[in-house]
Known about the structure:
- The chain has a single domain (24-98), classed as Ribosomal Protein S8, Chain: A, domain 1 (2-Layer Sandwich).
- The protein is 49% helix and 18% strand.
- The protein is elongated and about 70 Å long.
- It has helices at residues 11-18, 26-57, 71-79, and strands at residues 62-65, 83-89, 92-98.
Amino acid sequence: MNTKIKGPLPAKWWEKRKEKIMIPTAKEARERTNKWIALKRQAEMEKIEKEIEREIENGHHIAYCTWRIDAEIKEKLEELGYTVTLGSQYNESWTSIEW
């Protein structure tokens, strides 16, 4: 099947097509992206909180995450007094959080 179009597109085609195009403005895209990032960070913080609570209940002074945490979350944990180490081995990222 040949999908190449030779020459300019007919005006009627564009008129029909532009009604269906829903590309957000750059401002809308930025706002939606920032909202998504904030939600992702919140979910990640909740997951880390559960890991820390679980390790406290097990009598440990360290929690491991099997992923590389967000830089802003790392900074926040360090502000709270945790020692955060990011690493990777064999193409697997990890994070250790010590108290």
